[in-house]
Amino acid sequence: MTGSVTRLPDLGWMLRPLTDVPGVRHAVVVSEDGFRLGHASAEDLTGPVALLGVPEAESLAAACAAMTMTGRSTAALLFGGGAGVRQLMLESEHGFVLFTHAGAGAHLAVATGTDADVGLVAQQMQVLVARIGTRLSTGPRDPAGPSS
């Protein structure tokens, strides 16, 4: 018997309020193990990544999972094994990427330009998670068993 992965519906439509915040470029909902659950881009973007397609969103999902795992191990090293990671922020010369816990087994990542008010973006991320966090959550995957 083999395990199965349940295909979840695309949750990108839930991210529209975030992509309407000034300075926000892209938003992605990510499962804890790095799978893209949904994504959205702001309207009328220009620049090198004007539209976040599925391949880019899947790459961002994998990077988000790696960042949160690194954050978890760093928090455990500094604060003990039970310390969880609530938020992370990455700054580059082109903008910011904010990661936050978005429910059981899920994270939310938002990419902004340099002109974004990151405090406002973080606040709106928390508002969205509080409002629809249960829909952003993912359960554990079915374990894969030995194949016959």
TrEMBL record:
Enumerate the transmembrane spans. none
* Any Pfam family hit: Robl_LC7
Q: Which PANTHER family match?
A: SERINE PROTEASE INHIBITOR RV3364C (PTHR36222:SF1)
Q: Which SUPFAM superfamilies match?
A: Roadblock/LC7 domain
Q: Which organism is it from?
A: Streptomyces wuyuanensis
The Roadblock/LAMTOR2 domain covers: 12-112
Protein name, UniProt field = Predicted regulator of Ras-like GTPase activity, Roadblock/LC7/MglB family
Kindly give the SMART domains that the UniProt entry links to this protein: Robl_LC7
Gene3D superfamilies listed in its UniProt record: Dynein light chain 2a, cytoplasmic
